[in-house]
């Protein structure tokens, strides 16, 4: 019964022959292309021979799906290679009709027999298996590419963590050396204090090391999972067609689920807080040796410094070097510009400090929001969260781009912050002459901000913070 229905469906309504080059009109009736053309020539119109509706199609487009079914039904199989014949023998969709061309139902996502199951799929989208496999493999290859890209991003983060891990060890060694140098100046009776500081440093190094190890382990686990998914996808792509169609869905679902994972992010605060150990170290010991110490109101944070900037051992001076240091790209670091931030910020009250700029030809001095963009493009203006005085080649400019007039070249600048009143002011420290003032509303912590350009031809190369 099913075969009789299929025979009627695959026969031309004009000549009753099984289709070879069927065309389907907009009314869904199908005919031999040549029969339809002869009928139209005789009737002088383009109406359907069955329902008489005028067709919006010209009748020249072959319905390849119907042609495949008709060829299969009539036994008009295309010559196949020995490899394809081997596949056909191995991958049997229907034991009753193993010789029939296999079809794929996109609605039910499975291979079907065009004879036994034809009546069950008349309203479904059915395509040749070869076409389905080609399309689905293309989708899976796209998923594979997404997985590989995701793995590459995780690899980049892992590489950065490796750099940070190595840098932490270097920080440990250099900071330990500087701490020892400081304590040597304080003689033997300060030995207990010295060992206390070293212990704190080692404890933080251990904590940061554990943090990095934990994050790296997590990253490696994610990479391992992604690699497993990639292997599964690659293995899936090697399967034979029917086997592939029966199992690709789970592999694709897993691949897409992992592709949708958020990109890995570096954690902040993974480096040793060098400023905590070295900043104002001598002042903290000042209670015991007041006459041998110096206090700086601002300590520079080396974890925020551009690779081109070199900080002094006591973290109170900065200069632009001739070569870029290889530093990890941790979240706190300024990478696009030669800037560095203070280690401690201000959320209230009044604060002031002086900066010795000498005759340096290119510098920025002021304050920046803690959330200031440290990786992308930005300008030294309040719009970007920076309130500063800018000097370049003898010209002084504020953040609004306006030139500031001074009586003589500035050597030493006082920066004053009144956080609660929203004021940042700059003065010439020599005679306290007012230079410029910003008025704004501050809503987050502000950090001392320094930018240092190249200093070729200048006698003073460091920008130094002082009382």
Automatic annotation (TrEMBL):
The keyword tRNA processing does not apply. Signal peptide: none annotated. Transmembrane segments: none annotated. Residues 12-52 form the RING-type domain. PROSITE patterns: B302_SPRY (PS50188), ZF_BBOX (PS50119), ZF_RING_2 (PS50089). Residues 278-467 form the B30.2/SPRY domain. Residues 130-167, 191-236 form a coiled coil. Pfam families: PRY (PF13765), SPRY (PF00622), zf-B_box (PF00643), zf-RING_UBOX (PF13445). Keywords: Coiled coil, Metal-binding, Zinc, Zinc-finger. Residues 89-129 form the B box-type domain. GO terms for molecular function: zinc ion binding. PANTHER family: E3 UBIQUITIN-PROTEIN LIGASE TRIM. This is Nuclear factor 7, brain-like. The gene is LOC114440941.
């Amino acid at each position: 019964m099913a075969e009789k229905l299929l025979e009627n469906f695959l026969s031309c309504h004009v000549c009753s022959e099984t289709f070879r080059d069927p065309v389907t009109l907009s009314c869904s009736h199908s005919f031999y292309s040549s029969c339809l053309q002869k009928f139209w020539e005789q009737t002088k119109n383009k109406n359907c021979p069955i329902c008489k509706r005028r067709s919006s199609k010209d009748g020249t487009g072959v319905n390849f799906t119907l042609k495949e079914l008709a060829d299969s039904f009539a036994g008009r199989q295309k010559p196949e290679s020995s490899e394809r014949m081997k596949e056909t023998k191995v991958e049997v969709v229907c034991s009753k009709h193993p010789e029939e061309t296999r079809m794929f139902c996109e609605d039910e996502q499975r291979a079907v027999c065009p004879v036994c199951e034809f009546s069950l799929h008349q309203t479904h989208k059915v395509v040749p298996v070869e076409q389905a496999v080609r399309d689905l493999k293309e989708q899976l290859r796209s998923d594979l590419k997404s997985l590989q890209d995701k793995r590459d991003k995780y690899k980049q983060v892992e590489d950065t963590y490796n750099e940070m891990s190595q840098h932490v060890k270097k920080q440990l060694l250099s900071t330990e050396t500087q701490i020892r140098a400081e304590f040597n100046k304080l003689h033997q009776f300060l030995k207990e204090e010295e060992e206390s500081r070293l212990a704190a440093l080692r404890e933080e190094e251990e904590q940061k090391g554990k943090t990095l190890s934990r994050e790296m382990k997590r990253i490696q686990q994610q990479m391992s999972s992604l690699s497993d998914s990639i292997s599964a996808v690659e293995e899936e792509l090697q399967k034979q067609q029917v086997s592939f169609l029966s199992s690709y869905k789970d592999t694709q679902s897993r691949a897409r689920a992992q592709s949708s994972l958020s990109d890995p992010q570096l954690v902040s605060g993974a480096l040793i807080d060098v400023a905590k150990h070295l900043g104002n170290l001598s002042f903290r010991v000042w209670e015991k040796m007041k006459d041998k110490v110096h206090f700086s109101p601002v300590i520079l944070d080396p974890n925020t410094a551009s690779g081109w900037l070199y900080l002094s051992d006591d973290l109170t001076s900065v200069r632009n070097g001739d070569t870029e240091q290889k530093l990890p790209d941790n979240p706190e670091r300024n990478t696009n510009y030669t800037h560095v931030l203070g280690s401690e910020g201000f959320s209230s009250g009044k604060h002031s400090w002086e900066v010795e700029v000498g005759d340096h030809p290119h510098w920025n001095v002021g304050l920046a929001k803690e959330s200031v963009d440290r990786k992308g493009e930005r300008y030294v203006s309040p719009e970007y969260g920076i309130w500063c005085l800018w000097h370049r080649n003898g010209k002084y400019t504020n953040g609004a781009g306006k030139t500031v007039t001074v009586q003589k070249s500035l050597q030493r600048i006082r920066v004053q912050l009144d956080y609660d009143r929203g004021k940042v002011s700059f003065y010439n420290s020599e005679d306290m002459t007012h230079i410029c003032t910003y008025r704004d509303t501050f809503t987050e912590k502000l950090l001392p901000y320094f930018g240092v350009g190249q200093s070729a031809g200048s006698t003073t190369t460091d920008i130094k913070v002082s009382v």
